[in-house]
Structures are given as C-alpha cells and as structure tokens.
Amino acid sequence: MKIKSFLKDVGGASRVTKARKAKFDNASGKNEYTDPINALARELHPGKMKVRITKVEEVSPTAKKFTFEAVEGKLPPFQAGNYVSFSFQIGETKTTRAYSICSAPYQARTGEHPFFEVTIRNGRPGQGFVSTYCYENWKEGDIVIADLPYGHFYIEPLRDSKYIVGLAGGSGITPFYAMAQEIAHGTLDADLTILYGSVSKKDIILVKQLTAVSKECKRVKFINVISGEGEKLEKGDEKGFISRELIAKYSLDGNPSNGKTTFFVCGPLPMYNFVAKELAALNVPARRIRMETFGAPKDISKAEGYPVELIDKVFKMTVVRGVQEDVIDARADEPILVALERHGIATQSHCRSGECGYCRCKVLEGTFFVPSVGDGRRAADKRFNYVHACSTYPTSDIKVRIPILDD
Ligand SMILES: Cc1cc2nc3c(=O)[nH]c(=O)nc-3n(C[C@H](O)[C@H](O)[C@H](O)COP(=O)(O)OP(=O)(O)OC[C@H]3O[C@@H](n4cnc5c(N)ncnc54)[C@H](O)[C@@H]3O)c2cc1C
Ligand code: FES
Which atom of ligand 2 is nearest to the CA of 351? Predict the structure, then answer.
C-alpha cells in the first residue's frame, strides 16, 4: 500500500514537472506579475496622494468646508467617521494635521466626480498654526497632499448597537455629518441622535447641512445644546451642557446603561473629560463608548501630574537618525514632535493625539511626561522607553532615536 502511494507521488511529481516546464517554455520574458494582495492593499491605502480643492464653502462664521477630488486615480474607500491626514510645509516647519472626513463614503465611490470633504475651524487669533493657514490660504484649484483613511471612530455593526447617540462639541461635529449622510443615503444601517454642544448659536458648524439631513431622514436627529446666557432657543434645542440628564433623555428607552445605545464622543479635550464623567456616572458599559479627541491638550500645565514648575524651560534634545546626531531646542510645554517639526526634521505623524502610533520613537536618555489622555503606548513600549512623540513632553535634556525618512 505504502509502495503504491509512493509510486503515485513520484509519478505525480514528474507530471507536475512537465506541466511546469511547459509553462516556463510558454511564459513571457517580461516581468508581468502583480501581487493581487499588494495591489488591493495599495488601493485601500494608497499612502500620500495629491488631491485638488474643487470647492470652498463657509459653513459658519468661523469654519469652511473644503471639497477635494483625486488628481490621479481613485479615492480610497473609507468609513463614515474616518479622518484624513494632510501634510504641510509652512516656512521651515514640516507638519501634518488630522481632519475628519465630513462627507459620506458613498460620495467618494460613486457619481461622475467622486469627492471627499473636510470642514476646518479657523484658529483663534494668535493660535491655530495650521487651521488659520488652511482657512486663509486654501482656495479652489490648489493641490495638497493627503493621506487617508485613518481612525477607528466609525459605526461597526458587529460591535456597536444600532442606536447611536453622538455627543459632539466644536469641530467634533464633522464625523457625525458624514455618518448622518451615509445613514440618509441608506448605506449605513443605524439610528443617530446628535447632541451638539455650543456656547452660542453663532458657533454652530454645518447647522444648515445637519438640519437638512435630519429633515430628510427620520433616522437622524440633530439637537443643539446651547450653554451661553441670553441665547434664543428654537424648537427642539436644549439649554445647558451635555449633562447626564440629557444623555439619559436621548438614550434608547431613556436608559443609557442597558447596553442598547452606543455613545460616540468627539470634540475638544475639556468637553471630552466632562462627558466621560457623565457617562461613568450613568454606568454606561465601556464597550458602548467610542471616543475621539481632536489633538493634544492646548495647555499641558493643566494635565494631571505635569510638573508645572518646568513649564517655561527649554531643554536640549539630541536627535539620533542612524549615525547622524543633531541637537535642537525642545520646549517643556510642547510635545517633542513639535520640536522636531520646528527644526524641519522629517518624522511621521497622523492623529497627533497619542493614539495611532505613527510618531513612535525611542527615548535613549532623559526624562519626560505623558498625559494620561493621549497615552496610547503599549505595555511593552512603556517598558522599553518607546514613546509617541506627539504626546511626550521633555522634563530634562533628552536624547531620542527616530526613524530615518526621505522626505
Ligand atoms: C482625528 C482628528 C480629527 C480632527 N478633525 C477636525 C475637523 O474635522 N475640523 C477641525 O477644525 N479640526 C479637526 N481636528 C483638529 C485639527 O487636527 C487641528 O488640531 C486643529 O485644526 C488645530 O490645529 P492648529 O495647527 O491650527 O492648532 P494647534 O494644533 O493648536 O497648533 C498649534 C501647535 O502648533 C505649534 N506651532 C505653532 N507655531 C509653530 C511653528 N512655527 N512651527 C511648528 N509648530 C508650531 C504649537 O506649538 C502647537 O503645538 C481633528 C483632530 C484629530 C486628531
Ligand atoms: S501621531 Fe498618532 S500617536 Fe502620534
């Protein structure tokens, strides 16, 4: 029996050899092979690509919506709630900024002119290094460098309940506009109630657009929560902050802790901290909370555990790239990523809030502070002194090793 199957195997091998030989003889001399897995990966994540601004529209007194098309090829598919990372060279500084895609995914896949959109809020006077730059300079016809899609802030039917309450503040409304449009189009199966906190009615971004979607689609509800004194409320508006009472009121069955509602939270850090406490007080299960913060803390001295006595210090940072070493200044109140960028040193970044890990580097010497919100390091990274440069602040002279990049 064994001998028979051995002979069969040997015979089979010789047949394969003939077939292979025939293939070799008939094969083209050119290298025409493309790996289908790599080709698909490139389609889904093309990396940095050129996109053209096709439209600029004011969507509040302080925010503009920008529409983009691909300069070459197709836009990659994305989920409602993903973000795009734009690259900038502003003076000496090479930097990136993340902006949530506020258009619906179907708009980038279909139609004669597939597109995606972002809405950027202008920075306050004297602040807003990149936002002010985009707000004041970006115009129709400009070509910019975008890298998309990134992020985990999207509705995943296998993980999240169908009933979603979005808790938004400031420019954190943008991913919810993408979700709302995708639901209205019928390509996302969810019910979305958005509670949008603003101080004043004039701060509300995309108000016309969100009101229109909620009128068109019964599955989307849009509620303004206004905290400023003397503000005139309209029918459906709520007064105050996004408090536990409001969260409970708009949860399914009025019960936020029964696991039937998933809460998506997006906005500036103070709002994020406030809402996190309210959700904890309501005993919302952790698996029903999805959060996205919009960037690093504005004032690191307010972070719990930060050594405030160091705030005005400027340290020396030795930057190691392969065999090259450069010594630059690093301010105690800025992440080391910003110090690198100020000195024109190319490094990778996307979220700039400690979450994605693209800016990971190793601290070889010196001490540093990482705020608890923004500490996305793995346990092994902590053990071996790897940090995320976007959420690491020097507290002494410091030496870091960063990856070598071409651009
Ligand atoms: C996932 C995600 C999605 C987001 N989506 C949106 C959105 O849809 N809409 C929106 O408006 N915002 C969004 N944001 C926020 C956005 O990425 C920016 O943080 C925001 O626009 C403010 O950026 P800014 O540069 O204007 O201000 P900041 O980030 O506050 O810029 C100031 C920073 O630049 C540094 N800086 C100042 N001058 C210089 C210089 N000369 N050289 C180098 N560094 C300097 C400062 O030290 C400081 O660190 C999102 C953020 C994230 C993480
Ligand atoms: S850029 Fe995402 S963790 Fe630093």
Answer: 2
pLDDT at 102 over 60: yes
Instruction: Name the average pLDDT for the chain.
Output: 93
- Distance in Å, CA 390 to ligand 2 centroid: 6
3-state secondary structure (DSSP) of residue 316: strand
The ligand whose atoms approach the alpha carbon of 82 most closely is 1
The residue among 145, 124, 170 whose CA lies nearest residue 350 is: 145
Minimum-distance ligand to the CA of 295? Answer: 1
Is the omega angle on the peptide bond into residue 149 within 30 degrees of 0, that is, cis?
Answer: yes
How far apart CA 242 and CA 224 sit, in angstroms, is: 10
* Percent of the chain at pLDDT exceeding 70: 97
Residue of 84, 205, 338, 388 to test ligand 1 pocket, by largest number of atoms within 8 Å of CB: 338
Give the ligand with the smallest distance to the CA of 392.
2
Distance, in Å, from the CA atom of 328 to the CA atom of 140, rounded to the nearest integer, reads 38
Atom of ligand 1 nearest to the CA of 121: 11
Report how far residue 165's alpha carbon sits from residue 127's, in angstroms, rounded to the nearest whole number.
31
Write out pLDDT tens, residues 112-121: 999 999 999 9
Mean pLDDT of 321-341: 96
Please state which architecture CATH assigns to domain 41-150.
Beta Barrel (2.40)
The minimum-distance atom of ligand 2 relative to the CA of 349 is: 1
Any ligand 1 atom below 6 A from CB of 376: no
The reported pLDDT for the residue numbered 406 is 67
Location of each CATH 3.40.50.80 domain in the chain = 163-293
User: Does the pLDDT at position 14 exceed 70?
Assistant: no
Residue 336 has pLDDT above 90, yes or no: yes
The minimum-distance atom of ligand 1 relative to the CA of 118 is 8
Assess if CATH 2.60.40.10 describes domain 301-401: no
In angstroms, what is the span from residue 332 Cα to ligand 2's centroid?
Answer: 18
Four-CA torsion 382, 384, 387, 393, nearest 10 degrees: 90
Q: State if pTM tops 0.85.
A: yes
**Residue 269 pLDDT > 90:** no
**Residue extent(s) of CATH 2.40.30.10 domains in the chain:** 41-150
**Is any atom of ligand 2 closer than 6 Å to the C-beta of 99?**
no
CATH class of 163-293: alpha beta
